Amino acid sequence: MKTIAFYISDYGYGHAGRSIAVMRRLLDDNAHIKLIVCHSFALEFVKESLKEYRNRVHFREVATDVGYVLCEDSLEPDKHALNSKVQDWIDEWAFLCEQERLFLEDYEVVSVISDISPLGIAAAYEIKIPSIAISNFTWHGAYTDLINMKLLAFLEKQYEKVTFFFELAGYNERHWSSSYQQVGFFSRNISDSEVKRIQRELNPNKDKSIIFFGLGMKVDVKTLQDFKLWDSQGCVFLVSQNVSINAHNVVKVPLSYTESQNYLAAADVVITKAGWGMISEALAGSSSLLLINRQSMQEDRNTIRYMTEHSLCKVISQEELPFLKVTESLSEQLNALTIYQSDNELNKLTDKTIKIVNEVQ
Questions:
Q1: CB of 239 within 8 A of CB of 253?
Q2: By three-state DSSP, how is residue 278 classified?
């Protein structure tokens, strides 16, 4: 039995959701590995999602990165607060990295997988075991134009220590390793029976459009109540638990429901910021995508560029969002989008990962 430490970014649920898809496939296909999940923000969600593998998965609560810091009541980053938090994190780096090095040695970890914290990558480098990055970006790339050059240079040194990089759809940074592979969108498996149940519950007469409106669990925009969207005729809206909306046609996804990809697949349209995880699950469910354009976010710009080049979405600006309504014209435009064709992307990723792990003596 070989032990892999899987580091998951602490920013939101998107990294956790796609990491769960990877971990499930690794555990299903390979009886001779066990995983230690290193994470904090969505750890209970990950535990619940992997409970059937409890004999081969262990969980370790550890803060893995800073993520973004947003301005109050906004989708935009707070540069000053972000610089301060990243600086504090880097000030502790020597101690944090030493803690991870000791952990990896104590548990005889043979490889690190990271989406996309540099912490596990740096610790793996110290004890000369391979590290595998899985992401559509690094925090170095995401923080470009947001934090000062000294902090960026530090992150650059950490990501240069990676052994192998799976560059996910929309990736638009340098090749951090000479060993890399490009991989398209993938998601957790969708249950057709669950999708049909949700659709029957939300739209029993089949006379409405189901719209999923998702900003992510770390976004709190207090002005949402005033959006014109909720006045759209013939629509029922799905939102996450952190969205405070009082309207007869708005339904919240139950907080205890971990397989949110089924709700996305039940929707005709998904309106969301350009988070890779939500996009991948919407594409897997063949839902039409309307993406909110945050030009200040390098990660979002890269993802939206990929999506528009492949005719997989429509785009709306943040300024337009409060006045958006779902109209017949918009629905026709969304229905004309290309349906994404996956080519066993998750198999490509996990097969290569196991090959790297098996090469470790």
A1: yes
A2: helix
